[in-house]
Amino acid sequence: MATEKLSVTVDADVAHRVKELAGHRGVSTFVDRALRHEVARADLRTLLDELEAELGPADPGMVGEAEAMLASLEQRARRAPKRRAAG
């Protein structure tokens, strides 16, 4: 995979926290993952907007059901024992 060096300016507190969280993986890997996450969110938003334009707005009842299922999954994930990442 080709890479490209970027220069960014961030709040000092954020930079400090990123360095703490990145640990041995390094800031570049941490930032790459964060940017991939944001790109995926933007792509999903585009898809949802296209679907809404084509099919109309989502059914509020179905949205509520989906949100409840997501909340339940998030709750279970928080209660689950933490697994250590291989590496």
What's a quick, concise take on this entry?
The chain has 87 residues and is an all-alpha fold. Helix content is 69%, strand content 0%.
Write the layout of secondary structure elements.
Blueprint (H helix, E strand, L loop, with lengths): L11 H11 L4 H29 L4 H20 L8
Helix pairs in contact: 1-2
How does this structure look, described?
The chain is mainly α and 87 residues long. Helices cover 69% and strands 0% of the residues. The protein has three helices and no strands. The two termini are 20 Å apart.
Largest β sheet strand count, sense and barrel closure: none
- Average pLDDT, rounded to a whole number, is 93
Order of helices and strands: HHH
Total tally of structural domains:
1
Strand portion, in percent?
Answer: under 5%
> What is the strand tally?
0
The number of helical elements comes to: 3
Which stretches are poorly predicted, pLDDT < 50 over at least 5 residues?
Answer: none
Taking all Cα atoms into account, the compactness measure Rg is: 18 Å
Distance between the termini: 20 Å
Shape type = extended
- Helix content estimate: 55-70%
- Helix/sheet category: mainly alpha
Provide key terms for this protein.
mainly alpha; 3 helices; 87 residues; single chain
